[in-house]
Amino acid sequence: MKITEEQIRRVVKRILKEDIDVEMGGGNEKEAAFRKIVDEKQAGKVDGSMVDLFSASAVVAVLDALNEKNKEHFLSLPPVNMAKIAFKMMKK
Q1: Does residue 22 lie within any of the structural domains?
Q2: Which domain holds residue 61?
Q3: 64 assigned to some structural domain
């Protein structure tokens, strides 16, 4: 069986994409955007709303602590509400 160079490229590309999805928020664009802000240490936009580094790090901390069901619900909220909830949770 002969493996072509194109087949190898497709496999490597798919593996790298899966690794990036896992690292950057499990395939969820909103979570990935928050994590990108924290990684780059610079404000950015999430769903059209500007988010600062402090708010993004609070949201990421809460996301890391939630189970999958609650994480899914939390990610369905607008970014402003996510930040408000994250700050309330950080006080406790």
Answers
A1: no
A2: 28-91
A3: yes
Nearest CA to 78 among 40, 55, 3, 2?
55
| Sign, Cα dihedral of 19, 21, 24, 25 | negative
Look at residue 4 in the predicted model and tell me its pLDDT: 85
Dihedral of CA 11/13/16/18: which sign? negative
Q: Is residue 24 within 8 Å of residue 32, measured between CB atoms?
A: yes
Q: With respect to residue 14, please indicate whether it lies within any of the assigned structural domains.
A: no
What's this model's pTM, rounded to 2 decimal places? 0.71
pLDDT value for 63: 93
Which residue reads 């999958």 in tokens? 68
The answer to whether the beta carbons of residues 46 and 78 sit under 8 Å apart is no
Q: Is the pLDDT of residue 75 over 60?
A: yes
Q: What total of structural domains would you count in the chain? A: 1
* Calpha distance 77→10 (Å, rounded): 35
Q: What are the helix (H) ranges across 24-78? A: 29-40, 53-65, 68-75
